[in-house]
Recover the amino acids of this structure.
């Protein structure tokens, strides 16, 4: 019995350690004070106003959306195509190619950032949206590959063979069978790519100019230089978006499970 | 056969775009970073004619007339003062005395009214092969100077490798600190994550979902949000200090931020999911009846754990630890925001060399050290996790 209580206490404390910081920051988004401490003197929406109407924050949000959308499109198209190609077991060096596709997740961001800055400068792509989108795509694409590869592995190849034997051409099989079945994986890959771009700071520090400041980059310098409750408001939006994205991923997973 | 080969062709066509993209924007940047670390064109760029003549020199005999003429011509052609300064600094570090020698030589060469016949007439030192040897060595476009300096090593006058004096030995301190912080974070994650995963795997229903959800929520939350949250909690007027003062444990606020304690706490929070999830995925494959079986055979719970559960789950602990350690050594954001100047890790130093002082050679060299360490550890991790299906 004491063992059981000890276990329950340990589990509760660890859950508290994991979740409490995220909850603690939420109410501060609605503070009327200029400093980020409890107790909250009175409630106000002024920091959300700051977030949406102050020039620096508004531009950062718009930039994040532009770069996030570009990254999502590029990473999803490249990653989905590559995952389809990886299905073929006859490809030489299949394992090596797969490892290469996943490696951007492993390499430290600062190392990639240094190399990326040197290279993009050579192409004249520093301080451009395209440069930031390319950099974000490199680190976002592994998530698409993992997600789509997983979805494709779940497809029963006999369904495709059946369609083929009934006279469907390869493009038709792809459009009518493979793609719909893989769609939940593609969608959750796209969501993960967008989330990766939204949260990416280090590469952005190296390749983005002042005109491409993203929301995450703005939060980074705001914590570093003059921390204000606008951070908490941004964090509030992030956490709400995370829960929404989490629901989308969970729903698409259960859709995938149901469609099998 | 033709159907199979056309299928292979199609697959290659699908793979090609991402392959080209990653070779261009992932592999190439890493290579250009590495080449920054070893490239050293400062001298070769300014002395192309001397490079040609010095190739035929036997590296011992006194300088010949063509060698002196080539160097004089090269030095006369230099019109970029900054490049000249770079070259002189480079040569002076190989052989002291070059700074005064070059100053004297360039001003003598600039005197067009009575041009010097040769270099030796400007300064007797040009007769000595040592100075020419330094130039000949510096003409190579590659150098190991940055890579050695990244490990606090350097070459002495004789060319053999030795430790740099302590006042120049900062990198090793930072490397040791990086690995030490990463080890502490890994240890903390293992101490919390292993029991947590065991408890979660032993439960079922909503309790298990709650425990896993508590791990997944932070994993999905933006890293900056989590760091900002810890910033708010740990600050002097933060919730933790308020709480501890409220229950009377402390009188004065504890220093929790801008020091090592804060960095360890925040990084443990950020990386804990990477420890729990691999261990959990190994634990759920272990048959549930093993521990009761051990107990029914009379084993004390501790003994049953040590002899049954621990060996079976060790693989999960090892992959979790490697994953946490690999992520931790490359961390930049959390130490930069929560740590003090004494808690900066290798990534911060790389960022400082790259953006702060534009010393791309040193940034590249330290980047190579971090990259090699990461890839080595990752190959161990990949082997560990790819063995898994075979064992089951």
């Amino acid at each position: 019995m004491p063992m059981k209580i000890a276990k329950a206490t340990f589990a509760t404390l660890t859950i508290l350690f994991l979740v409490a910081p995220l909850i603690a920051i939420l109410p501060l988004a609605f503070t009327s004070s200029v400093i980020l401490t409890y107790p909250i003197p009175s409630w106000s929406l002024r920091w959300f106003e700051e977030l949406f109407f102050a020039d620096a924050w508004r531009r950062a949000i718009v930039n994040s959306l532009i770069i996030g959308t570009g990254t999502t499109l590029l990473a999803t198209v490249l990653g989905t195509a590559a995952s389809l190609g990886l299905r073929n077991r006859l490809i030489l060096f299949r394992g090596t190619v797969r490892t290469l596709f996943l490696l951007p997740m492993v390499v430290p961001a600062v190392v990639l950032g240094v190399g990326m800055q040197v290279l993009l400068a050579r192409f004249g792509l520093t301080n451009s949206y395209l440069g930031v989108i390319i950099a974000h795509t490199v680190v976002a694409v592994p998530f698409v590959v993992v997600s789509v590869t997983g979805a494709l592995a779940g497809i029963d190849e006999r369904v495709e063979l059946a369609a083929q034997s009934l006279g469907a051409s390869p493009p038709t099989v792809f459009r009518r069978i493979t793609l719909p079945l893989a769609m939940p994986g593609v969608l959750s890959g796209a969501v993960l790519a967008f989330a990766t771009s939204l949260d990416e700071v280090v590469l952005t520090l190296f390749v983005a100019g002042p005109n491409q400041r993203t929301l995450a980059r703005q939060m980074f310098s705001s914590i570093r230089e003059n921390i204000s409750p606008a951070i908490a408001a941004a964090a509030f939006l992030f956490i709400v978006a995370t829960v929404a994205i989490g629901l989308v991923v969970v729903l698409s997973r259960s859709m995938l499970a149901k469609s099998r | 056969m033709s159907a199979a080969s056309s299928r292979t062709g199609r697959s290659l066509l699908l793979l090609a775009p991402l392959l080209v993209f990653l070779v261009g924007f992932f592999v190439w940047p890493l290579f250009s970073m590495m080449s920054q670390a070893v490239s050293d064109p400062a001298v070769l760029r300014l002395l192309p004619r001397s490079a040609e003549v010095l190739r035929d020199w036997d590296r011992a005999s006194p300088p010949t007339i063509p060698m002196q003429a080539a160097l004089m011509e090269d030095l006369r052609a230099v019109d970029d003062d900054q490049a000249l300064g770079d070259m002189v600094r480079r040569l002076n570090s190989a052989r002291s005395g070059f700074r005064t020698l070059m100053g004297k030589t360039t001003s003598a060469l600039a005197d067009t009214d009575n041009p010097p016949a040769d270099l030796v007439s400007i300064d007797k030192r040009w007769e000595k092969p040592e100075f020419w040897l330094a130039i000949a060595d510096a003409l190579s476009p590659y150098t190991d100077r940055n890579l050695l300096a990244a490990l606090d090593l350097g070459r002495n006058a004789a060319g053999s490798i030795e430790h740099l004096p302590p006042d120049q030995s900062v990198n090793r301190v930072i490397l040791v600190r990086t690995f030490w912080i990463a080890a502490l974070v890994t240890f903390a994650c293992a101490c919390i994550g292993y029991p947590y995963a065991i408890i979660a795997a032993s439960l079922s229903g909503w309790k298990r979902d709650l425990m896993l959800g508590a791990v997944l929520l932070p994993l999905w939350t933006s890293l900056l949000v989590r760091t900002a949250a810890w910033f708010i909690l740990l600050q002097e007027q933060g919730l933790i200090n308020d709480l501890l003062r409220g229950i009377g444990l402390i009188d004065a606020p504890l220093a929790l931020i801008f020091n090592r304690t804060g960095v360890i706490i925040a990084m443990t929070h950020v990386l804990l999911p990477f420890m729990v999830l691999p261990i959990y995925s190994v634990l759920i494959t272990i048959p549930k009846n093993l521990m009761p079986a051990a107990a029914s055979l009379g084993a004390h719970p501790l003994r049953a754990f040590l002899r049954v559960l621990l060996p079976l789950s060790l693989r999960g602990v090892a992959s979790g630890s490697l994953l946490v350690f690999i992520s931790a050594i490359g961390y930049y954001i959390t130490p930069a925001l929560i740590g003090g100047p004494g808690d900066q890790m290798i990534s911060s130093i790389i960022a400082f060399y790259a953006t702060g002082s534009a010393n791309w050679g040193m940034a590249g060299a330290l980047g190579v050290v971090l990259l090699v360490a990461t890839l080595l550890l990752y190959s161990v991790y990949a082997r560990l996790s790819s063995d898994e299906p075979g064992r089951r």
